[in-house]
Amino acid sequence: MQRSPQQILDDWKPAASRRTHLLAAAGVWTIVGTGLLIAGIHWCQSMGFPQALYFLLPGILLGALKGYFVLGRSARRSVLRIESRPDGTCLFGFIGWGGWGLVLVMMGAGFLLRHSPLPRSWLGLIYSAIGIALLVGSRVFWRTYRRLGGIEATG
After folding, report:
1. CB of 43 within 8 A of CB of 120?
2. Nearest to 121 by CA among 34, 56, 50, 68
3. Is the peptide bond before 50 cis (omega within 30 degrees of 0)?
4. Which of 108, 136, 124 is nearest to 37 (CA)?
5. 140 strand-pairing partners
6. What are residue 34's phi and psi, to 5 degrees?
């Protein structure tokens, strides 16, 4: 019996549970946010102290606000989408097609920023803000993952 192309793709699809999708989303937001924050701190601290704080502190404040009010809302929508899907869907589906397009656009914007004449101090402010925003937004995924039994509650 010959198998259809769809059956062959289904055999190779990295299927995952909803909890795994939440873990993947939380992990990606946390890892990328940490990397961007580290880059932002590095670029700001190359100016020396206390000048670095003039760029780093506003970046952290703006990022925390964006993470709470903007990315938190986006993460909640993603959680609802993930929870509405059945277990066994493709692991990479923790982000929708439009979200993957946005990831590519943001990666391109980061490349352009890093190769622009913008001073590293300003890049540090931007990168630290985006990094903190992702870290603050990731709390929505982590909280939902924990609620679904992903991490034992303590205390």
Report:
1. yes
2. 56
3. yes
4. 124
5. none
6. -65, -45
Alpha helices in 2-155 (DSSP H): 5-12, 18-45, 51-66, 72-84, 97-114, 120-147
Spatial separation of the C-alpha atoms in residues 33 and 133, rounded to whole Å: 7
Structural tokens at position 43: 């670029």
Q: What share of the chain is helix, strand, coil (3-state, %, to 5)?
A: 75, 5, 20
Which residue in this structure is represented by tokens 């703006």?
Answer: 62
- Helices and strands per DSSP (H, E), number in the chain: 6, 2
The model's pTM: 0.87
Task: Tell me how far apart the alpha carbons of residues 59 and 35 are, in angstroms, rounded to a whole number.
Answer: 15
* CA-CA-CA-CA dihedral for 86, 90, 96, 102, to nearest 10: 160
Task: Give the pLDDT confidence of 101-145 residue by residue, as tens digits.
Answer: 999 999 999 999 999 999 999 999 999 999 999 999 999 999 999
Joined together, the tokens standing for residue 113 give 């920023």
